[in-house]
Amino acid sequence: MIGACLESVKWADEIIIADNGSTDKTLEIIRSDKSLESRVKVMKFAEQDFASLRNKAMEEAKGDWVLYVDADERVLESLREEILKQAAPERSEPRPWRVQDDVRLAQDGCSAFAISRKNIIFGKEISYGPYKKDWVIRLFRKKDFEKWTGKVHETPHFRGKLGYTKNSFLHLTHRNVDQFVLKSLEWSKIDAKLRLESNHPKMSGWRFIRILITELWNQGIARRGFFNGTVGAVDSILQAFSMYITYVRLWELQQEKPLEKVYEEIDKKLIESGFKH
């Protein structure tokens, strides 16, 4: 995954990788491509939240403009050319594939740009639902950037006006069910903890039923996920499942005694009683 992503941004003056414990042989891929090796810096972290990763990468960036790209995103040619056209000054001589000055973007008066994403979900490009207008703020003039916040769904803060690009990322997500479920399990831990810290009401049976029905309605009907055919139905149900898992984790955290402790006590009593039950 990371190899194709890097290939799509080879035109950049510098590439900074915030590696949060990946297992996709990032260093080997970089070393195998001499055109990348001298311009790529890999920053390794252990279980940092997404906002922290993005902030540390920004601190390392030297350019006037910084573009964030996730490993499952690709910078299409049309987007690359738009960024280069806006970021580079007007010159008579050819100046291919370099983002260095901020003359054109400064003329637009924008300090950051939102970029839409074309989403490939389970192998199919989705045209309805929450993925239709999927904007992410990813291009920043460094001097106007402030910080990212948020442990799960990170939000950028910057001074100045927000602009919108005409062209899009290609987002290759949900490659298979395993990937979706593993990501949901990872994110749900963080999300559940945040909800607990915000004093979310105690979870009960009726809340679980309401959450599941509401999420199915939101994902499939209100956000038109079911209009994407079989893939849309699969994705909508999985999205509802992901939210359901978050609340199950929250319910676990709300217990007076951790469930692991409960099972330890059961084992202890069984041993003491000679396994009478």
From TrEMBL:
Annotated ranges, domain Glycosyltransferase 2-like: 2-87
SUPFAM superfamilies, per database record: Nucleotide-diphospho-sugar transferases
A Pfam family reported for this protein in Swiss-Prot or TrEMBL: Glycos_transf_2
Gene3D superfamilies tied to this protein: Spore Coat Polysaccharide Biosynthesis Protein SpsA, Chain A (3.90.550.10)
Protein name from the UniProt record: Glycosyltransferase 2-like domain-containing protein
Organism: Candidatus Daviesbacteria bacterium RIFCSPHIGHO2_12_FULL_37_11
